[in-house]
């Protein structure tokens, strides 16, 4: 498993980050022709019903925006012959965002680019999404 990215800000770095990720997926595919690549998207980290006064709508918009760009990129890579799938964590995390009673991402008291990281339930949620996507593409660990 390889993790890259994260902690991009919302000042225009999302699009270049998606492009860089696509380039890296292409490099991995060329170096490891039998690789099964799963690109994990970002969840919406905040409840649809915010509990504090903050512009959380922007965070959810950004999560949706990046997810849609990543999914489109994966679709384009697949059309070009790259063996890649997209895993969307949004359904798994729905009802578990910040301000929900059972939040999976965690937050520090001070909101910053490094404030949001998954709690144990969140990492378990990511693992379930990954396992399901691997099963969906027929990966059996060979």
Helix content: 40-55%
Shape-level CATH architecture: 3-Layer(aba) Sandwich
CATH topology category name: Rossmann fold
Q: What is the class in the CATH system? A: Alpha Beta
CATH H-level superfamily: SGNH hydrolase
- The shape is globular
- The helix-and-strand class reads mainly alpha
Overall pLDDT metric: 79
* Widest sheet, order of strands: 1-2
Largest sheet: 2 strands, parallel
Topology, number of strands: 4
Number of domains: 1
Task: Explain the overall architecture.
- By secondary structure, this protein is mainly alpha-helical.
- The chain has one domain: Rossmann fold, CATH 3.40.50.1110.
- Helix content is 44%, strand content 8%.
- It contains 4 helices and 4 strands.
- The protein has helices at residues 14-31, 56-79, 90-93, 120-136; strands at residues 37-40, 84-87, 105-106, 117-118.
- The protein has a two-stranded parallel ribbon with strand order 1-2.
- β1 (37-40), α2 and β2 (84-87) form a beta-alpha-beta unit.
- α1 (14-31) runs parallel beside α2.
- The two termini are 15 Å apart.
Task: Offer a quick outline of the entry.
With 142 residues, the chain is mainly α.
